[in-house]
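Task: sequence design from structure.
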């Protein structure tokens, strides 16, 4: 069955261009022209991915993204903008977008990004169903942190956490490489599956969000340590920390 894509863009020429190229690539495409309609559509219908413009009437892309995540709808979002603004980019990712592209863009590149995001989602889904020998499946237990990759669940002191897909992938990758220093470029390539040239702030944003959710004190992290000049290292907290 074809993957279902929602395109939300108020420029008819761009919406038509995206729809044509995504359909040619084998996707089932639905379009909306304003943010409110896009939000309602995504809230009430299942989609595999949303291509979401930043500047939209009625409800902008940031608010659409924020509202969907507040509704616990974690469908992957590829955000589009006419602004090449680092603040907008980081804010969009903070709100839960999975990727970010600046206009003008190549339709071929959009299709490639969509496929890359969906591939990551499928890889996560396959990992979740790989281990069925016991009720819990494979687990990563590190101090008060319990990670169940197959169940897509994370607990801290037995309390279930709500993570975005990218936060979850990043946490699992860090935990799988406990004790190793990982550069931002390594994390970009491993978790995002392609390079964001010069966009290592993406990693910092997600690390910051993870710390807010798993650390006893995000200002003095005991799990995710910053290794100055190199990157990050995931550690088992010391009993003295």
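Answer:
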């Amino acid at each position: 069955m074809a993957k279902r894509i929602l395109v939300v863009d108020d420029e008819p020429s761009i919406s038509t261009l995206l729809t044509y190229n995504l359909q040619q690539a084998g996707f089932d495409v639905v379009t909306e022209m304003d943010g409110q309609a896009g939000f309602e559509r995504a809230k009430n219908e299942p989609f595999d991915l949303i291509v979401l413009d930043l500047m939209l009437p009625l409800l902008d892309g940031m608010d659409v993204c924020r509202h969907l995540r507040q509704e616990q709808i974690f469908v992957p979002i590829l955000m589009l903008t006419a602004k090449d603004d680092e603040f907008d980019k980081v804010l969009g990712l903070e709100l839960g977008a999975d990727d970010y592209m600046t206009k003008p863009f190549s339709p071929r590149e959009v299709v490639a990004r969509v496929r890359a995001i969906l591939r990551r989602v499928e890889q996560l889904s396959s990992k979740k169903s790989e281990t069925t020998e016991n009720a819990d499946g494979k687990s990563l237990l590190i101090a008060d942190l319990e990670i169940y990759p197959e169940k897509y669940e994370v607990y801290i002191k037995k309390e279930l956490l709500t993570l975005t897909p990218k936060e979850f992938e990043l946490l699992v990758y860090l935990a799988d490489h406990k004790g190793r220093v990982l550069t931002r470029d390594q994390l970009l390539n491993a978790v995002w599956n392609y390079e964001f040239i010069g966009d290592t702030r993406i990693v910092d944003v997600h690390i910051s969000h993870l710390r807010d959710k798993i650390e006893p004190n995000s200002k003095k992290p005991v799990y995710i340590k910053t290794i100055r000049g190199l990157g990050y290292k995931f550690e088992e907290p010391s009993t003295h920390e």
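The mean pLDDT is 83.
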